[in-house]
Amino acid sequence: MEKYSVEDLMVPLSEYATVSVGCTLRKAVQALEKAQEKFDHSMYKHRAILILNEDGEVIGKLSHLDALRALIPEHNGTYGTDELNRFGFSNSFIRKLHQHHRQQAIPLKQLCSNAGESKVEDYMCAPEENECIDYQSNLTTAIHQLVQENLRSLLVTRQGKITGILRLTDLFSAVYHTMASNPELS
Amino acid sequence: MKALSELYNRIIQRVNINLREFNFDVEPFIHNLVPFDQLAKVHGFYAVTAQHPLDFQFRHSNLAGSYLLGKCRTTNSILYKSDIRGDELKKKGSIFHCDNFKIPLTKEEGIRIENSFLIKTLVHNYSHDPESPERFSISNTVSTHYANIHGSPTDGSFLGPFATVDLSTINDCVIGAFSYVQAGEINHFHIDPGTVWVRSPGDFNFLFRYPADILGRYIQFRPGSQPDGILIDFVNDHKNAFERIFETVNIKSSIAVPPNASLDRFAVVQPKLSIEDNVLVAQRSFLQNSHLGRGANAQENCFIINSFLKGFNVTAHGAKLINVDLEEMVFVGFNSFLRGNSCRLGIGRDCIIMPHTIIDIQESLLIPAGCLVWGSVTCQADLETNSIPLKTLEKLEDGFSRKNLVFEGNGKKFVSAFQNRIQHILEANGAFYNGKDHKGHAQKNQNISFNIIQPYSEGEKEGVYPTIIIRP
């Protein structure tokens, strides 16, 4: 396992779900489904969609959670939890407020339909330094980074450009197999 | 104008240092906002009365077009067409109550303005910070058109146009255009434009924010541009009327003023205006074709046009009433804009119009007595969303939300806080004067003399006023 680098385990950009900036969430979800169909060497599904700019460079990542945020009213114009906290509202009041909004919310089907028209850039997260790793890094470095930063994937970079994604599931699989096949650990 | 230019740069640097965590550069916002030659041309003036301490000290400052009353010091500051009204400062020997503390004042409270640039800003009331009971301090701050610094010591902050900080302590904050903050002590806060925030920790918390598209029609402030929108257009449309009263030394009142009422000589009065007993009309207010009933007041930067105020009405600093009929005891908060466009707006008795409310209607509208109103109202449907009967609010113990408003806490305490405040304002203004007791500003501010002060007119110090100390 020591001889493997991050690049050996990553999913290359060409095999991952990607969409261009300006695309709707509906198209992004369709792209995810399509990429999953093509990507058959693992039982694990992709958990994110990468957003590319006009030059094909990755400028953001849209996770499942990011896509779900589009369905929550607080992300559609009113106050977010962080903001209400900042303005001194109590946690119990904020919970009640959100519960009240949920009760009054429009049906989920309608919400999904509305959210589908949102642009990916409104909900994506721009890549941050702590979630990027150089393609030559070893797997121990990757494990440390994932655990320390509490991440589900790392963006693999080569000369500053993102070339693939190292998923927690793939790394865990590799570790699991090493553990299972090592008699000293059994 | 080398010294003035250095002063300007120094103030910008001081503010930017305080706001560096927001990466906020104040310079693009105020660049060319006030022409330098205007600062050098316009004189400042101070008031002399027997009712208030006479204690001015101006050092290395420009006071173009500004009005100063009471104990006031300015150092390394530019005050452009601002009102520093020290007629509510705490008196020597008085007791300041805060929580369970009774704080005795050992000297007269004074306003101190240092390293600040105030543009058309009103400074009034007294310091509500118990840690500085004898000093109402404004330092390292830039405030822009028609901002109100009301009883709020302010340091290292930027206030956008029509922003109000009220009865608070503000450190290192950006307060966006048309935002109102009354929240105790706030530090390192960036408040978005059009936010109305009234908080008393443990009692209540009121938060409203205007949708950007609505706010943008009324006020916008972008770096490199003058503020614009309906509010600015409205004020500019009436600007010429003020020029005449500021250019004339002796000006006689055009209407009969009852002996226990006060009509400031720097207020614009246009036909036909009638005022009753105990009315207070402050400087820089504009009154036209209106009636102000007993004990009503029009504070600085108010516009009252084609309106009828039945009596004991508070029209707070910067509020505007056009084609409005107020029943008794109606409170119209800071900078509110109430306009009937070829129609009438009626407001019932005891209503509280929250600060920074915009009621701009095309069809007549009647607000029932005893309501709290906030935000933007253009029709009956808006009123139903953006108002609540005070009696209903008083029964709420947890809170409620409506569209862009969230309210947490005890409704009764919120209503009481406002009603007590209204009562205090009416008392302070002398609305209840009976010929013997309860004197207030309406009776005390009648005989004011004004003296002019001017800066160096040429050379490196052009535009900067010499050090001036004025005492009895």
Summarize the entry for a quick read:
The complex is a heterodimer of chains A (186) and B (472). Chain A has 186 residues and is of the alpha/beta class.
What report would you give on this structure?
The complex is a heterodimer of chains A (186) and B (472). Chain A has helices at residues 6-9, 25-38, 64-69, 81-86, 91-104, 108-116, 139-149, 168-181, and strands spanning 11-12, 18-20, 48-52, 58-63, 132-134, 153-158, 161-167. Chain A has 186 residues and is of the alpha/beta class. Chain A folds into two domains: 6-67 and 119-185, CBS-domain (Roll); 71-116, no CATH class. The mean pLDDT of chain A is 84. Chain B has two domains: 2-227 and 447-470, UDP N-Acetylglucosamine Acyltransferase, domain 1; 238-398 and 412-444, UDP N-Acetylglucosamine Acyltransferase, domain 1. In chain B, strand 7 (95-98) and strand 8 (101-104) form a beta hairpin. The longest helix of chain B has 18 residues, at 411-428. Chain B is globular, with a radius of gyration of 21 Å. The chains are: A alpha/beta (186), B alpha/beta (472).
